[in-house]
Amino acid sequence: MTDRGKAIIRRDAETVTARILDAAQEEFMRAGYSQANTNRMARDYGISKATIFKHFQTKQELFEAVITRIAERWHAAIDWPSIEADDPETWLNRFGTSALARLLEPDALFVSRNAITEGWTYPEIRQIWPRLATRPIVELLASKLSTWADAGLIKAESSENLARAYLDLAFSGEVSRALYAAASAPSQEDISRHVGERTALFLRGCSVAS
User: Fold this and answer.
1) How confident is the model over 6-35, as pLDDT tens digits?
2) In the 3-class helix/strand/coil scheme, how is 120-138 assigned residue by residue?
3) How far apart are CA 179 and CA 82, in angstroms?
4) pTM of this prediction exceeds 0.85
5) N or C: which end of the chain has fewer CB within 10 A?
6) What are the backbone dihedrals phi and psi of residue 152, each rounded to the nearest 5 degrees, phi first?
């Protein structure tokens, strides 16, 4: 087979996989993990059930693929080059604003909501998002904090614990309010202000002068 023929087959396979994941994500978001139905996925997107299970052997494997794609899109949506800054406050404000805005979008909220409602029944799915999305961000942020600590800009006995503390402080409250519809959706200005206030509080807590 020619290289062109192989490329066409590869593109076709990628298109089918994308359609399956689109169908699965819509179904999981609508029905939840336990009630998701592959018959509806196939019917609503014009694909056969056999095609779904040719690509993904189990519902858990399909769910993990959906979460993987959401996590990849979340990470890709953060404009990493524009975040770069020498001082911690600017970097954290830019990172926090970009990341929180993405976390408040429907697909990311679906992941959090699903972990709350079905995570104890299906502990294996509760760990997917932390492993695929949260852990890489914690590691990246911990690396930044460690660099700033080495430069004498902040105090950090444990950069990983400090990274988790920042994420909890900057993100958890807003995500919880969105999950429980306790407030109207924040504007970009609201998100920036929220992150700025939490970043300032966080940096006061790990200031070298404190």
Assistant:
1) 333 344 778 899 999 999 999 999 999 999
2) CCCHHHHCHHHHHHHHHHH
3) 29
4) no
5) N
6) 80, 15
